[in-house]
Amino acid sequence: MQIETPGPASNMAVKTVPLAEPGANEIRIRHTAIGFNFIDVYQRGGAYALPLPSPLGHEAAGIVDAVGSNVTDFGVGDRVAYMNAGLGAYADMRNVSADKVVPLPDNVSDEDAAALIFKGMTAQYLLKHTCPVQAGDMVIVHAAAGGVGQILSRWAKALGAFVVGTAGSDEKCAIARDAGCDIAINYRNENWADDLLAATDGRKARVVYDAVGKHTFMHSLDLAQPFGMVVLYGAASGPAPDIAPEILNKKGCLFLTRPSVFPHNAQQDRFRANAADLFDAIGRGYVKASIGARFSLEDAAKAHELAESRASTGAILMIP
Ligand SMILES: NC(=O)c1ccc[n+]([C@@H]2O[C@H](COP(=O)([O-])OP(=O)(O)OC[C@H]3O[C@@H](n4cnc5c(N)ncnc54)[C@H](OP(=O)(O)O)[C@@H]3O)[C@@H](O)[C@H]2O)c1
Q: For the structural domain made of 2-116+266-319, what CATH number should be given?
């Protein structure tokens, strides 16, 4: 699936291209499950500019189909997944650099891997690197019924945090509670930030994980405790407003960061260590796949439209 020009989901089109033999350090993967991620919407729509025409997609799981001459740690038939190998996951087959791939443990199915590797690695760095969450911390997770949101909530709860989620309907709040949130607040209600503080008896968060952006960001600054951290890691409702740094002083000497999963997993040793941590968390039951919808790869536009409609929960997969 490629785009010639940025725009609506219908701009994505199937393109048949010849696939070269894998280079010396590459492996060829036959995809079995492809993960949708909200960044795919930003890139398809032009909010994040791409050189055009462009393939799409960051995350997939599959079977190794061929290996380059220098590759020793993968063999044909191995089950693998990746989340940071460059654009092009929306394909039935592709070549990727072997150092960007992890082998899948037996307890992680291909579909679960495609639902978890990008979103789970995001939760991993947010909880372990950006703001290492400790037992007893209060954590706010916006869009807690979504793909990253459910993983982040369940894992934060497993680490001993008091987890407050927000979501866009009462049904989604129930899903957020099922995913580990102690409290879930419907942030489509007008005074939702007041409702949240009333529900926590005025307690504020050590860290607010905010990937909603425009709709939530200024409230996030108010919901962090003094010396707390606001982690702006996405813009599902649109970009967060510009602020003057001085506001961080006024709101309680806050820390503000805008991180990304890609640099956290750019080096192979970091990537492998982070993936091992994620697989360990899956094994312990701290992280679970929640697959909300499946589409054929040709129906990628339907996957995007579902995500943009805010009707989705959990992960959306595309099956080639
Ligand atoms: N920086 C990073 O490293 C990184 C990595 C991965 C993902 N992310 C970000 O994390 C967020 C979640 O990603 P995801 O792939 O798991 O997506 P997702 O949660 O499945 O979808 C985004 C969620 O945002 C909420 N939302 C609020 N306003 C929205 C709007 N106007 N339009 C659409 N959705 C809206 C929706 O939940 P409600 O209906 O409950 O509001 C929706 O479920 C995205 O913002 C993504 O960019 C960042």
A: 3.90.180.10
